[in-house]
Design brief:
Chain lengths: 296, 462
Amino acid sequence: MKKFLAQAYIWTLLLLLYAPIIIIMVFSFTESKVLGNWTGFSTKLYSNLFTVKESGTTFAVDTGELVVRSAPQGVSSSLFSAIENTLLIALVASIISTALGSVAAIGIFNLKGKKKQAMYFLNNIPMLNPDIITGISLFILFVAVGLTQGYATIILAHITFCTPYVVLCVMPKLIQMNPNTYEAALDLGATPLQAMWKVIVPHIRGGMVSGFLLSFTLSIDDFAVTLFTKGNEGLDTLSTYIYADARKGGLTPELRALSTIIFVIVLVSLTLINVYSIYSKRKNIKKQYWRYDKAS
Amino acid sequence: MKENCIIKIENICKNYDGVQVLDNINLEIQKGEFVTILGPSGCGKTTLLRILSGFVKADSGKIILEGEEISNVPPYKRNLNTVFQKYALFPHLDVYDNVAFGLKLKKMPVDEIDKKVSKALKMVTMSDYEDRDVNSLSGGQQQRVAIARALVNRPQILLLDEPLSALDLKMRKDMQLELKEMHKKLGITFIYVTHDQEEALTLSDTIVVMNYGKIQQIGTPTDIYNEPQNSFVADFIGESNILDATMVRDREVNFVGHTFECVDEGFGENVPVDVVIRPEDIYMTSKIESAQISAVVKSSIFKGVHYEMFVETENGYELMIQDYNSFEIGSEVGLIIKPCDIQVMRKERTCNEFEGEIVDSTTVEFLGAEFEIAETDLEPGTKVRVEIDFDKVDLLDDKDDGAFTGVVNFILYKGNHYHLTIINEDRECIYANTNDVWDKSDMVGVKILPQDIRIFKAEGDE
């Protein structure tokens, strides 16, 4: 009985957690415009997703909702450009954040005592700060310095909130590092720059990769900060596009297919990462067995 | 002699947060020598090594490597290589690339690197391991790779920072012999830091004993063992009986209530000294009449080669003796000590001495605390010299009862009492004799009665 309850609890919990995404996935295979209305199985939404509507491009911008909604085939090119923008911004922002965050982590790690604690604390604040406040303050800052809002400001904003996470990912790798490793490199004739490149960077690479991935997802995911920094030139990322779209009176049906694709991509990549780490652990153990075999 | 000197350390001082870690170190090391810097943890030996390798900068002083001052040369430009305590191999590189690291930085041609690396790996008997991931190696194997990685660069001096301390005993003994062998073969100067006195005695041509950031003694292993210059060295190296004694006259010294013949001269007459007698140098006999002193066996433990016994003499001194024969516990034995086995040392101090200042007619301040004293007519603010006998320093369990609190830093057993070194917050020392058993790093309250504080006006303070 006890076991049954425990099982029931965990399955209910999982069901509640995944219910929304499952509903979206199921209804991505039907053409119905309204979510929750099953009008027969179809992969139309998926094929629509990959066909840009010929004439809708200009109309979509000019007359907005009417054209998009009445279009029988394909999605508007503004959704495409939103996807493009999202990926481009995420890529640029996470690459720069990874570089900045790694260097910052090394710097903070080498500070001593109170200074180190203070810097670590300062690094943690932006992560706890509500997005909306980060967004508003960045908006005010950009206006104050007279920066035209667009790609540049979104990327700058994303770098701002991603970098602390990179620091957080890289720091444990530095703590794990044998404190003499860097000195050993200097001792063998490496200049501080060479030692950093040849010894420290390879050592913290794992942390840098997870920092990069985290930044990438955070950037794709972000809505609040982007909304305040994207300006009013019609630049949209996926999140702001969907928000605007939903406000126009209902979600474009193709977004259900898009959500499903994104979810599947994430699921597959997570599975791959996990399988890889299990595999490499096994390989390590095998290696050790091999060592004992050879020794005996 | 002078031309053979490879490295010269001149007046090196180093402070960490106001704590003097190295206090005016002077040392000259000959080419091809195997020098061991030996001392307890926190004595400054590792800091000295790190100053040599360039990771730490000395506050003052000079390091001269073959006639050239290198005090301000960064580590990567010094032709010295270090073997670290925890190996510090590069985990992302395999054995070959670890060893080749230094050579690749020098942009050496590939075939030459190949040759040198395989030669170095052969020397440490790791030839078959070139492609191995360093994390898959055992501690001993990793340390061999670390040694190969350092030696392949042909350094002028190899610095070793407790390289064997992370290995188990058997492995350590094997590696000691191998290191000694390598040193002989290569002719490179080795500077080896360790806290293991046995290791130091086994390996070195010269041992430098350090404590409290100062060099206590420099000498060959036999010198250090047989003729320790002070009680710290005697206690730290091997087992020893250290006793208070009085030099009666040349070649005669009195301790445990008996005057013994010895070989030391020039101390003066009736001068208090310390004597050191190694436990294997006391001969036990059941014929009490023919012995110098008699004692009762208190305990006896079989140690494999010998028995380790504690005996108590008539006047209540406890002595440690190592003998091949076992004597029954409780039996009376005679003891004989040969003149040449008695090592007489000048006492470093005969009482506590401090610089202090008069606060008012019944209070004096020293060691960062105020003490009550017998009434004095010296003006407040007068600088004074304060003397207190060792056995007048009271140590209290309750920290609040004392004038100040200190930590027991060093314990010396003197046969019938303990001689303790107590350190206060400012790293100043006070010495106390006591019969109570304290442990190292115990916190104690220190109390001194007013009548036991002797005060002298500081000289040259007119």
